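lol forgot to send this yesterday, sorry. struct tokens for the thing we talked abt
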């Protein structure tokens, strides 16, 4: 599967688990991502997250 789609699915899964009442720590353990990543993703809305993903794809290499 495409890396972009994987990250988008993870975004929606984090927000779904948060709505269901899971703690940020439990979400990070379940999805095997850092707790700080969960915090950052929860602070973004969908448009901000898509802009973030777009900025990752346009990074230049030195």
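and heres what i got for the seq, position by position
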């Amino acid at each position: 599967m495409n890396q972009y789609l994987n990250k988008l699915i993870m975004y929606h899964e984090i927000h779904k688990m948060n709505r269901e009442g899971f703690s940020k720590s439990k979400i990070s353990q379940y999805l095997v991502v850092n707790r700080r990543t969960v915090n950052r993703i929860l602070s973004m809305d969908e448009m901000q997250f898509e802009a973030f993903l777009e900025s990752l794809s346009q990074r230049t290499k030195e």
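The radius of gyration is 12 Å. anyway ping me if u want another try
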